[in-house]
């Protein structure tokens, strides 16, 4: 990363609040679909599991296809411009899902909704690197990810209680529209600029993909985000099957999600004095694997809660630190952060789209039918692969973004 004196601006806190709120609202809009799984696959709607999976994962496909473009476009124009365009598209897509319950219509609407996800994920590292240089980059990334866990918790709490899926899709449309208003009102371009605007998008992409670490962080987040989505897809159903009490299982799943969010905020603060990220990330990944394997092998009791909370905390290390990597790897220019973040975003969304429904489910169903230990264990394996890949990162990779900061406010 280039040496430069960086200023802190008071408006950065409004930027953080805005990113937090928009991430929360988008997750409500997107995760309300899996939250209504029992309704959509029930007798009233009658979707097949494959139809349901296609609708639920479609926004991640959009994120994969357009993540790189969203990052490049932000480097050329501005993050605010790209986010508003993405959120306008997402609001249209969410409205389309309210029109008809026909599967093709819902798939199309869900695909269009993913444009906001592509724009936000591609540029989140750049947002926090610009507005919060130094140790606060990873901490604010954790707060941003906490917004996603809150949105997911709300969606999974509301979804099963609805009697009409139309209502759920209307909630998603309102949430997306509010997110659009938030970015129009609160979104700002960084006062020091976000790009020099001298390179085309293709030139910036060619420059960054020559960096082997750009590819490496892309594959790391492919497996980290894939592990996160595998876990969220199958953990709650597995807990219901394991403990035999849907209410208790719901509480356990909520605690796990809250632990991910709190871990994502607290752990970057705790690990920042350690300076070297490689051993921390690897240990967290291996511990995540062990906790995934223990959940359904330890008898239900106090230790079950401990394991669920611990598992969430370990993921709370990997998610924010993984998302901060575009700002941590060597030889990436400030004006290329969008292109790097876009590439990483595409890879993480590809992992979210492919691993749960098209890799883990078919393999585990064929080899271990009905085994939630296998399904959740697969999330642990994906996390462990990310940890092993991280061992290839430079030994100097820090737990925070180094910066020369002027004018603290």
Structure in words:
The chain is mainly alpha-helical and 409 residues long. Helices cover 75% and strands 1% of the residues. It has a two-stranded parallel ribbon with strand order 1-2. It is globular, with a radius of gyration of 20 Å. The mean pLDDT is 86.
List the helices and strands and how they pair.
Blueprint: E1 5-7, H1 12-35, H2 37-40, H3 49-76, H4 79-96, H5 103-131, H6 136-158, H7 165-186, H8 201-209, H9 212-243, H10 246-271, H11 277-295, H12 302-324, H13 337-367, H14 372-390, E2 404-406
Parallel strand pairs: 1-2
Helix pairs in contact: 1-3, 1-5, 1-6, 1-7, 3-4, 3-5, 3-8, 3-13, 4-5, 4-7, 5-6, 5-13, 6-10, 6-12, 9-10, 9-12, 9-13, 9-14, 10-12, 11-12, 11-14
Quick summary:
The protein is mainly α and 409 residues long. The chain contains 14 helices and two strands, in the order E-H-H-H-H-H-H-H-H-H-H-H-H-H-H-E. The protein has a single domain, classed as MFS general substrate transporter like domains (Growth Hormone, Chain: A), CATH 1.20.1250.
Tell me which CATH architecture applies here.
Up-down Bundle
CATH topology: Growth Hormone, Chain: A
Strand content: under 5%
Shape type: globular
- The count of strands amounts to 2
Instruction: Write down the CATH class.
Output: Mainly Alpha
Rounded to the nearest angstrom, the distance between the terminal CA atoms is 24 Å
> Can you tell me the residue ranges where pLDDT is under 50 for at least 5 consecutive residues?
none
- Spell out the CATH superfamily: MFS general substrate transporter like domains
Sheet with most strands: 2 strands, parallel
What is the count of distinct domains?
1
**Radius of gyration computed on alpha carbons:** 20 Å
**Count of DSSP helices?**
14
- The SSE string, one letter per element, is EHHHHHHHHHHHHHHE
The mean pLDDT is: 86
Assembly annotation:
single chain
């Amino acid at each position: 990363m280039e040496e430069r004196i960086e200023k802190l601006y008071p408006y950065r806190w409004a930027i953080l609040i805005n990113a937090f709120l928009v991430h929360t609202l988008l997750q409500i809009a997107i995760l309300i679909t899996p939250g209504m799984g029992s309704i959509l696959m029930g007798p009233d709607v009658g979707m097949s599991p494959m139809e349901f999976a296609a609708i639920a994962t479609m926004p991640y496909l959009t994120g994969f296809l357009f993540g790189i473009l969203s990052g490049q476009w932000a480097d050329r124009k501005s993050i605010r411009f790209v986010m508003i365009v993405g959120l306008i598209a997402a609001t249209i897509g969410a409205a389309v899902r309210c029109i008809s319950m026909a599967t093709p219509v819902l798939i199309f609407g869900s695909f269009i909704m993913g444009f906001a996800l592509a724009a936000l994920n591609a540029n989140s590292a750049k947002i926090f690197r610009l507005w919060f240089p130094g140790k606060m980059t990873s901490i604010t990334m954790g707060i941003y990810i906490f917004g996603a866990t809150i949105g997911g918790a709300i969606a999974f709490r509301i979804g099963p209680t609805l009697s009409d899926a139309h209502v759920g899709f209307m909630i998603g449309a309102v949430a997306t529209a509010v997110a659009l208003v938030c970015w129009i009102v609160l979104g700002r371009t960084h006062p020091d600029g976000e790009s020099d605007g001298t390179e085309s998008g293709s030139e910036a992409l060619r420059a960054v993909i020559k960096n082997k670490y750009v590819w490496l962080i892309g594959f790391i987040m492919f497996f980290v985000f894939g592990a996160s989505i595998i876990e969220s897809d199958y953990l709650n159903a597995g807990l219901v099957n394991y403990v035999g009490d849907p209410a208790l299982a719901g509480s356990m799943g909520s605690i796990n999600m809250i632990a991910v969010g709190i871990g994502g905020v607290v752990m970057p603060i705790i690990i920042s004095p350690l300076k070297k990220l490689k051993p921390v990330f690897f240990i967290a990944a291996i511990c995540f694997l062990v906790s995934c394997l223990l959940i359904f092998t330890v008898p239900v009791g106090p230790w079950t809660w401990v394991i669920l909370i611990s598992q969430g905390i370990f993921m709370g290390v990997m998610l924010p630190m993984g998302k901060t990597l575009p700002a941590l790897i060597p030889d990436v220019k400030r004006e290329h952060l969008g292109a790097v973040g876009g590439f990483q975003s595409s890879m993480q969304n590809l992992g979210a789209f492919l691993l749960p429904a098209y890799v883990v489910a078919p393999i585990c169903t064929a080899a271990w039918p009905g085994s939630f230990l296998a399904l959740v264990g697969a999330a642990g394996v994906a996390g462990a692969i990310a940890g092993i890949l991280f061992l290839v990162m430079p030994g100097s990779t820090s737990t925070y973004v180094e910066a020369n900061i002027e004018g603290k406010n």
